[in-house]
């Protein structure tokens, strides 16, 4: 039996919830905090969400969603347009591979995997941007950003778990 | 039925191929964006403008609560400092009154001499105030997004926070402008040390203290020296304060910005009426690259 049009729309909108909540979180974390020092501790929320949703609901969060997340990150920074898009899509690719082995892994394992993937990604980005700008970028600020992203991971995941349990159908999880 | 089944399998295969191709296309698009960013392509600008226009209003709504929190914090912070500030201001006021008298005398003298020389003064600078609505999304860059409304802002214009330079306009799209801060890796400003007139290029390094490069080895520069724009290259008018030398270690000279970016809510985008600012900016960077 074919689905009616309103069921199709409902299905479409439900599948956009992870992307919508990710973008909402990103906007919140782009808010001016009026401090250059605190700015270093601003986590890369987009990466956490892309990782989480690809790992837990890969069929709802694919390359296209990662493309939009990366595009927004690019526009709200002065790094070359396309770089964050590329990195978010690479994150989806790596996480898709990890999903085969770790989809139902515990929170701590997922966190540790994110730490490993994130470290590789941020170092690669640092190398590419250093080559792009032709100058050695300060690694300490980048590492501060990496650790603050790791620290914020549980908080963002808590929110995503809430979204998953309350707004998305089936597959209830307890973390 | 059999034929229909074959057709369905072929459709599903085609769908799978298309889906995979689409992912490859997305990767290619991101690569193309990076390459085009290097040459400042129209496609990249358009994509950038579209996203900024679409997300700008959302950002304006989102930043409102943060602004309220910051104002409440600033209010109580200021109350705590009110007595100390008052004492400092009284002292400053005494000094200012003496200076005011001197300035009046100099102004009259200047007018008389100008008339004597038949000197035509340059056009007065015009400025607009713009509200900061977003900050940089990552640690690899230092930028601000400001709301400019319908004001005619151009790429390359100077951005002041309080009274000193904090950056320049990098991109304008619709009602929004992206400002590259002086601390950003992309920022390069020709400067001069006010006391000794030693020239250099203030280069952002993504830290709070940009570096002063291309200064002469024999240049007399000390900690605390004020750094102002030199006007070389025509991008910025001369004499605008930027910061002061905060540390010197060997050939490494770091400059602390004068404007307290942590307390800037509004910026001033100044138009000094410099003709073809954009061309000048490009020429400057081209000549710098050639020199390298």
Helix content of chain A: over 70%
Task: Please name the CATH architecture of the largest domain in chain B.
Answer: Beta Barrel
Task: Give the overall shape of chain A, derived from the CA principal axes.
Answer: globular
Give the end-to-end Cα distance of chain A, rounded to a whole number of Å.
Answer: 37 Å
Model regions low in confidence, pLDDT < 50 over at least 5 residues of chain B: none
Features:
heterodimer, A: 175 residues, mainly alpha, B: 292 residues, alpha+beta, Thrombin, subunit H, 3 domains, 6-stranded antiparallel β-barrel, 6-stranded antiparallel beta barrel, 3 helices, globular
Characterization of this structure:
The complex is a heterodimer of chains A (175) and B (292). Chain A has one domain. In chain A, 74% of the residues lie in helices and 0% in strands. Chain A contains 7 helices and no strands. The model of chain A has no long low-confidence stretch (mean pLDDT 86). Chain B has 3 domains: 2-39; 57-121, no CATH class; 126-292, Rod shape-determining protein MreC, domain 1 (Thrombin, subunit H, Beta Barrel). Chain B contains 3 helices and 12 strands, in the order ααββββββββββββα. The longest helix of chain B has 76 residues, at 42-117. At the A-B interface, α1, α2, α4, α5 and α6 of A face α1, α2, β1 and β2 of B.
What's the layout of helices and strands?
The complex is a heterodimer of chains A (175) and B (292).
Chain A: H1 5-29, H2 36-39, H3 45-56, H4 63-75, H5 83-102, H6 107-133, H7 139-166
Helix pairs in contact in A: 1-3, 1-4, 3-5, 3-7, 4-5, 5-6, 6-7
Chain B: H1 2-39, H2 42-117, E1 126-135, E2 143-147, E3 158-161, E4 164-173, E5 176-181, E6 188-193, E7 199-203, E8 211-213, E9 226-229, E10 241-249, E11 252-257, E12 266-271, H3 277-291
Antiparallel strand pairs in B: 1-2, 1-12, 2-5, 3-4, 3-12, 4-5, 6-7, 6-9, 7-8, 8-11, 9-10, 10-11
């Amino acid at each position: 039996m074919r689905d009616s049009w309103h069921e199709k729309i409902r299905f479409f909108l439900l599948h956009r919830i992870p992307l919508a909540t990710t973008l909402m979180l990103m906007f919140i974390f782009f808010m001016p905090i009026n401090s250059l020092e605190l700015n270093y501790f601003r986590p890369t929320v987009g990466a956490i969400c892309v990782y989480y949703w690809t790992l837990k609901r890969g069929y709802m969060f694919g390359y296209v969603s990662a493309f939009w997340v990366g595009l927004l990150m690019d526009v709200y920074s002065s790094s070359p347009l396309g770089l964050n898009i590329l990195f978010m899509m690479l994150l989806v690719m790596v996480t898709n591979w990890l999903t085969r082995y770790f989809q139902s892994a515990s929170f701590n394992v997922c966190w540790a995997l994110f730490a490993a993937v994130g470290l590789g990604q941020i170092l690669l980005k640092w190398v590419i941007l250093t080559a792009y700008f032709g100058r050695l970028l300060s690694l300490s600020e980048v590492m501060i950003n990496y650790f603050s992203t790791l620290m914020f991971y549980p908080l963002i995941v808590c929110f995503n778990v809430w979204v998953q349990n309350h707004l998305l159908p089936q597959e209830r999880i307890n973390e | 039925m059999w034929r229909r089944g074959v057709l369905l399998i072929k459709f599903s295969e085609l769908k799978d191929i298309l889906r995979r191709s689409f992912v490859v296309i997305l990767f290619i698009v991101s690569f193309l964006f990076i390459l085009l960013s290097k040459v400042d392509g129209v496609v990249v600008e358009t994509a950038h403008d579209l996203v900024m226009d679409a997300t700008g209003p959302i950002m304006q709504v989102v930043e409102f609560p943060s602004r309220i929190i910051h104002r409440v914090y600033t209010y109580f912070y200021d109350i705590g400092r009110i007595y100390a500030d008052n004492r400092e201001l009284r002292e400053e006021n005494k000094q200012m009154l003496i200076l005011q008298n001197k300035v009046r005398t100099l102004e009259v003298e200047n007018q008389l001499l100008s008339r004597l020389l038949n000197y035509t003064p340059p056009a007065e600078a015009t400025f607009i105030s713009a509200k900061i609505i977003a900050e940089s999304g990552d640690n690899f860059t230092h930028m601000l997004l400001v709301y400019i409304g319908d004001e005619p802002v151009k790429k390359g214009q100077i951005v002041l926070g309080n009274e000193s330079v904090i950056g320049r306009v990098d991109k304008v799209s619709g009602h929004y402008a992206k400002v590259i801060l002086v601390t950003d890796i992309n920022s390069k400003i020709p400067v001069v040390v006010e006391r000794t007139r030693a020239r250099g290029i203030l280069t952002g390094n993504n830290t709070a203290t940009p570096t002063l490069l291309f200064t002469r080895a024999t240049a007399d520069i000390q900690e605390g020296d004020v750094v102002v724009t030199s006007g070389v290259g025509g991008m910025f008018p001369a004499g605008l304060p930027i910061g002061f030398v905060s540390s010197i270690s060997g050939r490494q000279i770091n400059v602390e910005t004068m404007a307290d970016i942590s307390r800037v809510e509004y910026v001033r985008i100044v138009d000094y009426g410099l003709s073809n600012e954009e061309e000048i900016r490009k020429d400057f960077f081209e000549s710098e690259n050639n020199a390298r």
